[in-house]
Amino acid sequence: MPANGHALLSASSAHRWINCTPSARLCEDIEDTPSEFANEGSDAHSLCEWMLNKQLGKTEPKPELQYYSHEMEECANGYVSYITELLEDIKQHCKDPIVLVEQKLDFSKYVVEGFGTGDCVIVADGVLHIIDYKHGKGVVVDSTNNPQMMLYALGALELFDSLYEISRISMTIYQPRVANISTFEMSKEELLKWAKEVLIPASKLAFDGKGNYCSGEWCRFCKAKHLCRERAKESMKLAELDFKKPPILTDEEVEDALDKIDDLIAWANDIKDYALDAALKGKVWNRYKLVEGRSIRKVKDENSVAGEVIKAGFDPYEKKLATLTELNKRLGKRLFSELVEPYTYKPQGKPTLVKREDKRPEMNLAVNDFNDIEEEK
């Protein structure tokens, strides 16, 4: 195991280093700066681990969580309920399944110095279950041919394949904040074939720092994304186009632009963030300088201000209905359903353009109904 406790070719970054093999060594010496979102995710995983172990009868101290929220607890409760129900189903055909929580998994047979931690592994006759909790809500994670999950499965097979007759692998992403429970199954033979034909060759190149740089959606979590020349080259292909006005573009040209535009925006924002961070650390750019942004007045002492306003005969406070989440927390589920639920509604979400593969149903617009009437005439 490396001295820093992190695998060079980790399971969590496998999607990147499999597709862009030299990125592993490129990122090796770049300092890791965890974001608030990452820290919140770590707390959520700690809570999930504690609650699941508690459900399984293991007593241990509750973790201290800096980012704890009622939403986080609801998410963890849902995760535990999902696994509990899954375990009950498994027990219908396997009397002694093994449940492992935050299990260290070694897949170095396939990836040099490869290891990782599986959130939940359930081993039973016939099927090996890998469940991974995702707290993020910015990117919906799909379990289909997910290399992180497949690496965990390989590590679990190394431990238990000789003890249980495993023929299939079930891999589930549990991502509650975007209502995503994605499950993908494959045979053990298919997994081992992928390991032989794709994983092993890519991992050898990645460990040696060889291969070709290749940009794609896997760049999102790359530590070198702000300075990578290959990513810049691909992003600039769209930026350098001599666009005509959109109405003159063909439908195919518009869709080609849509395919790339999110990556272009993300790349541009990464460059801006990097340049600002470098300036804050003392770097002097030739054509840019640091200045103070727009500032808004703030109250130094709220109690003093309130007292003065009350003396003058005015009410300094405004009353506002608590959020539904807060009301649910105060009232409890039963009272909330009885007192508040009848007065709630869910407005239609803002129309969003997504790819056809997206699992959400297509919106039915009024204009489509009108077109159907026209066609019937």
Low-confidence stretches: none
Number of strands: 5
Q: Which structural class best describes the helix and strand composition?
A: alpha+beta
**Average pLDDT rating:** 87
What is the percent of helical residues?
40-55%
- State the major sheet: 5 strands, mixed
Rg result: 26 Å
Proportion of β residues? 5-15%
Please state how the strands of the largest beta sheet are arranged side by side: 1-2-3-4-5
Q: How many angstroms separate the termini?
A: 72 Å
Helix count equals 12
Shape assignment? globular
Order of helices and strands: HHHHEEEHEEHHHHHHH
Count structural domains: 3
Describe this structure in words.
This protein is α+β, with helices and mostly antiparallel strands. The protein folds into three domains: 14-208; 217-280; 302-343, no CATH class. The chain has twelve helices and five strands. The protein has helices at residues 14-19, 23-28, 36-55, 70-90, 147-160, 188-208, 229-239, 251-280, 302-311, 324-331, 333-340, 366-376; strands at residues 98-106, 115-123, 126-133, 166-175, 180-187. Strands 1-2-3-4-5 form a five-stranded mixed beta sheet. Strand 1 and strand 2 (115-123) form a beta hairpin. Helix 3 (36-55) packs across helix 4 (70-90), helix 7 (229-239) packs across helix 8 (251-280) and helix 10 packs across helix 11 (333-340). It is globular and about 80 Å long. It starts with 13 loop residues before the first helix and ends with a helix. The relative contact order is 0.09. The mean pLDDT is 87.
